[in-house]
């Protein structure tokens, strides 16, 4: 792999950009791998990357039914934060956030991590108490957050309306090193690094069956033939229920569409991320100037990846209360992604009833921020059979009633 650098850009500019090589190989499936990862979203690619980087396991294939990063990874609104309430969540999300800080250097790929700060607005007294509690919990967990006053919110976000008609702004939970990153670049950077380690990223290869013998996985059936493996990681977000069904177990998970939209590009007007959970909408400004706007999930289970009119209306109506300037914006496009939601709004990183099969899912509406931490932990789980970061997130927590309740943080957990 040729190293990307300022010098390389200058050199290629002089020779009309004829010297660049492909970022990753167009790999063909081999007969057998030590490990197969199903799903080339951020979590699957990060799992493969850390299997290679941290454990030297490089005979790995990442199988993707569409194109890499074409699932939720390429459809999300890219908010990164780690201000969760419960200790296991803060640990894995903060691990991820800290890995984002150096990801561009680590992957030699500019993922445009922008730690511009994230505010979660408190607009009811219940939310004030909830976020103050989270700030205290974060202080104990070593996650730097602070509960700020309405005046400080206004200082950080001059375009905000503090005295909304229904819900005035009473303060906010501020994480100064939260922010955003370029979602495609995260997938592409990991894919390039995996390919460079000799791993096969195989697109247009749908897994159609899981093969096991005597309760142990032996391989998968795919649209491009059977492939054998010793270990299998299922990392398919909204399709996790289907894959679990193929392997012969059930998951406590629901798939729903989550939607987002962007406006036309405008001059820079907001340099932090703002989430307004009570009115249910959130907004940031992209580097191109578009206002990136997200709302909630559909109220019924479905597998669509489209936007719908009622969501634009609900989300924009909510945001106009907090940002009156939104009423004058033209919207450019909207879309949806299939998110995988658990009852306690926390992910599942776990062994499964089939020996050698591991599952990573349930990131729901908020898994982009977790990609590096999740990949790091899942790789350790697959390589060593256990990871301190995944211990609390096992499937058995649903049988044992050990829920990791993040519904306060994750009501709008983007
Ligand atoms: C509109 C929207 C906004 C969001 N905003 C945020 C946000 O601001 N911040 C945040 O942290 N998170 C956000 N999220 C959530 C985040 O996008 C997801 O949690 C995260 O991207 C999940 O990544 P993944 O790698 O698990 O899944 P995906 O990126 O969906 O990857 C799974 C892959 O598996 C593939 N696959 C499925 N079935 C098969 C099969 N049988 N064989 C082979 N491949 C298969 C799919 O094609 C897909 O590419 C948002 C999501 C949406 C939809």
Features:
FAD/NAD(P)-binding domain, alpha/beta, D-Amino Acid Oxidase, Chain A, domain 2, eight-stranded mixed β-sheet
Summarize the structure.
Helices cover 30% and strands 26% of the residues.
Structure description:
The two termini are 34 Å apart. The protein is 30% helix and 26% strand. The chain is α/β, with parallel strands linked by helices and 414 residues long. Helix 2 crosses helix 10 (371-384) and helix 3 packs across helix 10. Helix 2 links the parallel strand 1 (32-38) and strand 2. The protein is globular, with a radius of gyration of 21 Å. It has two domains: 25-82 and 84-109 and 183-252 and 345-410, FAD/NAD(P)-binding domain, CATH 3.50.50; 118-179 and 255-342, D-Amino Acid Oxidase, subunit A, domain 2 (D-Amino Acid Oxidase, Chain A, domain 2, 2-Layer Sandwich), CATH 3.30.9.10. Flavin-adenine dinucleotide binds at residues 38-44, 63-66, 70-73, 75-79, 206-207, 235-237, 239, 258-260, 294, 337, 339, 363, 365-369, 414.
């Amino acid at each position: 792999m040729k190293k990307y650098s300022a010098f390389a850009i200058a050199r290629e500019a002089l020779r009309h950009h004829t010297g660049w090589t492909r970022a990753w190989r167009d790999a063909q499936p081999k007969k057998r791998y030590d490990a197969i990862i199903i799903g080339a979203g951020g979590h699957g690619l990060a799992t493969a990357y850390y299997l290679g980087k941290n454990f030297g396991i490089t005979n790995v294939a990442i199988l993707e039914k569409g194109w890499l990063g074409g699932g939720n990874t390429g459809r999300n609104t890219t908010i990164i934060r780690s201000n969760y309430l419960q200790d296991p969540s803060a640990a894995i999300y903060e691990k991820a956030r800290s890995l984002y800080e150096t990801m561009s250097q680590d992957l030699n790929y500019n993922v445009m991590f922008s730690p511009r700060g994230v505010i979660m607005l408190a607009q009811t007294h219940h939310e004030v108490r909830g976020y103050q509690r989270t700030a205290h919990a974060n202080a104990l967990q070593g996650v730097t957050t602070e509960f700020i006053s309405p005046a400080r919110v206004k200082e950080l976000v001059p375009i905000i309306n503090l005295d909304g008609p229904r819900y005035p702004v009473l303060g906010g939970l501020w994480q100064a090193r939260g922010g955003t990153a370029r979602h495609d670049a995260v997938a592409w950077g990991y894919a390039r690094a995996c390919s460079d380690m000799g791993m096969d990223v195989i697109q247009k290869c749908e897994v159609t069956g899981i093969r096991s013998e005597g309760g142990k996985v032996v391989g998968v059936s795919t649209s491009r033939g059977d492939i054998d493996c010793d270990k299998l990681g299922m990392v398919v977000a909204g399709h996790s229920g289907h894959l679990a069904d193929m392997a012969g177990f059930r998951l406590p998970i629901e798939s729903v569409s989550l939607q987002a939209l962007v406006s036309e590009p405008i001059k820079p007007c907001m340099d932090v991320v703002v989430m307004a959970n009570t009115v249910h909408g959130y907004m940031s400004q992209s580097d191109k100037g578009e206002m990136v706007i997200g709302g909630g999930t559909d109220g019924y289970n479905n597998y669509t990846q489209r936007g719908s009119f009622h969501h634009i209306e609900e989300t924009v109506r909510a945001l106009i209360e907090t940002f009156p300037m939104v009423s004058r914006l033209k919207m450019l496009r909207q879309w949806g992604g299939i998110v995988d939601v658990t009852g306690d709004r926390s992910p599942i990183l776990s062994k499964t009833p089939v020996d050698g099969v591991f599952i990573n899912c349930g990131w729901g509406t908020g898994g982009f921020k977790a990609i590096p931490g999740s990949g790091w932990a899942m790789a350790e789980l697959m390589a060593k059979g256990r990871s301190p970061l995944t211990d609390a997130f096992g499937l058995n927590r649903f049988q044992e009633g050990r829920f990791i309740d993040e519904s306060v943080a994750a009501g709008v957990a983007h």
